[in-house]
């Protein structure tokens, strides 16, 4: 089946952190890569990305889903839930209800809806072991609601690249350019669409796993600033996405120059 109106919803991963276009502050990510592939043989194809970093599912339901449905998409991809499981006020039953509401709303109005489970971050981010059970509960809710309403699931829990830090950005939470390409490939596979096989090809060399010295430096550079920011946000009531807007709020065509830059893989000939 060909798709002509593709809308992406979610948080920072759907926005494209940490995969910037070369020489810019604009993020690319798996959604842009998938859109470029879907647009290759159809000049009428249109793509919008309403994702905003820091957004929880309850915010996505209120802010993004109504805007998405106004665009009358025939394909929607929703990547969310990570910010829900990391809140101080986390309750599994509340998150499950949010998952169910989001998938129900989307599938009632859109022919094809794709949702994503989350990979296990607890093994590569010390201090997050406590959220493993939260991730498992979120993923179970996603599978349950997707089966109930007929959404497709890209299951990332067993993703083999989760143990290789080259697939992740400096914070070890967001995907790197290589990670985003893998995720785009998984999405396109779920749709039965061909993609650049290099996106799933193993990276050369051994997987990157931090030693103690590298780990200590990472904690100082990456973890402490995040802890300070989260603490400040908690006291002030701010969200990490406050002040940010969707990078592509309207359904727009994918032009040839954009397609060329999206298909560039660092290190390739």
Describe this structure in words.
Strands 5-4-3-1-2-6 form a six-stranded mixed beta sheet, with helices on both faces. The protein is an alpha/beta fold and 269 residues long. It is globular, with a radius of gyration of 18 Å. Helix 2 crosses helix 7 and helix 3 runs parallel beside helix 5 (92-109). The longest helix has 25 residues, at 212-236. It is built from nine helices and six strands, in the order E-H-H-E-H-E-H-H-E-H-E-H-H-E-H.
* Tally of DSSP helical segments: 9
Residues in helices, as a percent range: 40-55%
What spatial form do the alpha-carbon principal axes imply?
globular
The first-to-last residue Cα distance is 32 Å
Summarize this entry quickly.
43% of the residues lie in helices and 11% in strands. It is α/β, with parallel strands linked by helices.
List key phrases describing it:
hydrolase activity; SGNH_hydro; 11% strand; SGNH_hydro_sf; 269 residues; alpha/beta; 9 helices; hydrolase; 6-stranded mixed beta sheet; disordered C terminus; 43% helix; SGNH hydrolase; globular
